[in-house]
Structure formats: C-alpha cells, structure tokens
Design goal:
This protein has 396 residues and is of the alpha+beta class. The chain has three domains: 89 residues, ATP-grasp fold, A domain (Dna Ligase, domain 1, 2-Layer Sandwich), CATH 3.30.1490.20; 118 residues, 2-Layer Sandwich (D-amino Acid Aminotransferase, Chain A, domain 1), CATH 3.30.470.20; 149 residues, 3-Layer(aba) Sandwich (Rossmann fold), CATH 3.40.50. It is 34% helix and 27% strand. The protein has twelve helices and 19 strands. Strands 8, 9, 10, 11, 12 and 13 form a six-stranded antiparallel sheet that branches. Strand 17, helix 10 and strand 18 form a beta-alpha-beta unit. Helix 9 packs across helix 10. The longest helix has 17 residues. It starts with a helix and ends with a helix.
Length: 396
Amino acid sequence: MDIHEYQAKQILHTEGINIPKGKIAYTPTEARNVASAISNAPWIIKAQVHSGARSKGHFLDSKSGKRSGIRQVATLKDVYKNASQMLGSTLVTPQSPNGNYVSRIYVEEYIPVEKNFYLSMGIDRTKSSIILLAANTDIDDISKLAAKKSEKIFRLPIDDQGPNKEQAAQIAQFLNLETKLQPDFYKFIKGMHKTFIDNDALMLEINPAGIANKKIIALDAKIILDEKGLYRHQDNLRLKDDDNLTPSVIKAARYGFSYQEYDGNLGCIVNGEGLSWAMKDLIDSPNVSLGSVLNVKGGVDRDKIAAGIKIIASNPKVDGIVINILGGFLRCDLIADGIIDAAAEVGLNVPLVARFEGTNRAKAINILTNSGLPIIMADSTQNAIEKIIKAVEENG
C-alpha cells in the first residue's frame, strides 16, 4: 500500500528523524493559512499523489500553468495562486504517465541545504535480507545513477537488528559526510530501519536527504507498506487513500492483484514483479511496448483469475496480451481456466500468447490447446515476447 509523502514523514518523525515543518492543505485558503503559520517565506508546495518524480511532472489542465508538481513560492499570494492551480488538477509524471488527481497539497518550509544524498531500504529476496542503498545525488539523481553509474550506489545487506555503528560509518564515508555528522547519521538510519520493521514496509525511500544547520533532514519520503501486514497495524489503515487511483487499479486490488498502466499497447499478466520487468527489458520493437501489467498472486481461484484477465482485456489501448506464469503455489491450470472464462464473457479480439512453467503446466497447455480459442503457446519468456510482437504487428 502506497502512502503519501506527508504521512511517511509523520511516521519517520516519530522515530526521531528530522523533517521540515509542514502541513497538509485541501483548499487554497487553507494552504495560505498553513504557510503563514509554519514559517516565513519562501515555502515549498508539493502535490500529494502516489507517484515519484513529481518535480519532473506537468499538469494536464490549462489552469495549472507550466510548473511541476513541486513548486517554490515566495509570497502568501503565490501560495494561494499555486494551490488553486494544483488542487483538482491531474499531474502526469515519468512514473505515472496516465496522471494522478491532486486532492491535497503539502505546504512546507523551505530549508536550504549544503548537500543532498539518497537513502532507501527494501527487501532483497535473493539474499533474504533488508538492503540499504545510498548515493550522492548533488550532481546526478538516483534514476541516472541507477541507469548509467550503478557503481556509485552503495549497497549494504542488513539483518533484523539494523545497521551497526561500523556499517553506518562505512556508509557515511561513502557519502563523504563529515566525521562529526556520523552520530547523527547513525541515529538517522537506525530510525529508518525501525520504521521499516515496525510498519511491515516493503520499501522506504528518502530522496533526498539533506544537511542543514549541521543536521540531517528528510526532505522527501516514500513508504510502501505490505498490505498483508496491515492487520498488525490498525493505525496504518487510516493512511489508505484511493483518490488518485484508477478504477482498474482499485478493482485489481479488490481481488488481491496489483495493476499498473504505462504508455504502450501490450497487456502483460505475470505472477511476480521480476517477470514483468524482465519482459519489459526483452521487448524490442517500434510497434510494441508495455502498456499494462497485472500481477496475480497465489491463493486465488478461477473466478478471480478471470476477473483479472478482464481488466487487461478491457483496456482499449491493448493490442495484444502476453501471459507469463511461473507456477508454484499458483497452479497454471487455474490461469488457463480463467482465460477461457474471461474470453467467453468479453471475447478475445486481440492476439494472446501464453507461456506456462511449473505446477500443472501440461494440464494448462492441454486446456488451452483444446479450447478452440486462437491462443498462441510459447515455451519461454523470450519466445513469448517474440511471438506477441509478431502477432501484434501482423494484426495491425
């Protein structure tokens, strides 16, 4: 479950992490009053949507002007004006090309910093551990470093006890932090770790952290919570906000699936995020690119699978569907049955390629082969991509 920046900061602050003064606002008048109360000019106004790269985004609405989803303003009049432009508008970012509706903004004091750097924690499933990432971002942002200079990202697997002082000193040296800042830095990353563990987080990102007045401050924050752990954290249920989610995302979540849309024309059904990214990397065609991804999970039944497939099939942008399943707990024959049920209800008007591996693979292939539906079978991820590209290009 994604939560907003202001919510993530409030959680981090309870663990002793410094954050700028700020408050949420739902109207332009409220934004102006908040700005007046928290600090002197200037201020930062931030659209609160479930998307990163807000500073690189733009609004679809003409009333919103040409500025991004994060704006620095110098007067209370400008606070009101920019709040009026942003609230009720749709913000498009590189991470959410379809846009997100802005129902609230975060008004925050402006803090000039001496240095910026990136910190995050996530789960490294290959090592069955939490991994801490760190990078200097004064020159290049983290996306550029990840794409072209990955050696400039520090990676540290950490255990359930969190980073120790020795590890903290190692990271601080990598970030070129002054020695006298190391105790504060140790406290900072220990607070991150406690937040991560105590809230059953899947990802915690501070991008950027900054140094101001000899203190380390979280200038931005993003936390993704594990929905399966929410029963242990009833207070976190109130953080859920569906205002800027599309109906398809909400419907998918109802069945326990995750759904994402991009700019392309290929619908993709997988059981695991790694599969979807692997497929994205393998697509090499000027006519075919990733358009929507449905990630199904184990513990589902035939009806839920059919409902999920209908979400993809009903997307008007989709010119082809590829299903890539590595069955373990999720039986391949359930997917096959779901395909047939979905096709019976919404039809099969675009090419569909299916690849199965794992539990009941042979049974699934037999079901689809004898279904009478024009389904193309593949025997590997690479083969599935090649076949769907060819089918879409021939169909279209």
